[in-house]
Amino acid sequence: MTDTTSALVLGASSDIAQAIITALISDPEIGRVVAVSRKPVPANFTDPANPTNEPLWIESGYSEAAMAKVVEQLQPFSGCITRVVICNGLLHSETVWPEKRLEDINADVLQAVFQANTVVPTLWLKLLHSVLKGKQRCVVAAISARVGSIGDNYLGGWYAYRSSKAALNMLVRNLSIELPRRCKPLACVSLHPGTTESALSEPFSQSLAKLNVHTPEETATNLLEVLDGLGEDDNGKFLSWDGTELPW
Fold first, then answer.
1. Does domain 6-240 have CATH number 3.40.50.720?
2. Residue 113: DSSP 8-state
3. Which of 138, 156, 169, 196 has its CA 20 to 30 A from that of 148?
4. What is the Cα–Cα distance from 148 to 192, expressed in whole angstroms?
5. pLDDT digits (tens, 9 = 90+) for 26-82
6. What distance in Å separates the CA atoms of residue 179 and residue 125, rounded to the nearest whole number?
7. What does pTM read for this prediction?
């Protein structure tokens, strides 16, 4: 077992995830940052002159068997992981686009979006609980979205994305009840990162012009400040990037 605190970032290839990794690497309280992604380690995280300032990058697919092998690799960090940030998600791709009306709903798209936004995070936490047990406080945060709030939905549309993030929020709420019983002490929350300049938001740049848009680095700072400020009473909450509570 490693004797230093560690942080784990899942879905590490997104702009927000990489900014979070960069911020965690510079945190003196974090001895090691582990990043898991389907993609190879980006060049900006490769520094031959200072390899100790790089994340431990694990390249893996998202089948349950592949994820189980990742968890085996994480065994040396058992009981020492103090932050888990789940950044897996899908809003759009070459074959996926948010629906504007009922006629746009497609079964294959629904399955792809739910797989990325709900199924993969669920399987990660099913497999990870064994390495989260320990005496140190651990915070588990799933990157959700305000559009996944049922109570805050006044516009409609985006059926797959909204529904999959609402399902993710229910997963977090369930886990906030079970995980502390099995992995004390632990807090589990959903986080809305706010609108961020990224590949995710780039196609919607015109409609976002009037909103408060953050850089990935600003978003990472905001989210980690929220995580660092969590107390026992925050377990199971849906929180925005500024720490305010959102309706389910």
1. yes
2. H
3. 138
4. 9
5. 999 999 999 999 999 888 776 555 566 689 999 999 999 999 999 999 999 999 999
6. 9
7. 0.91
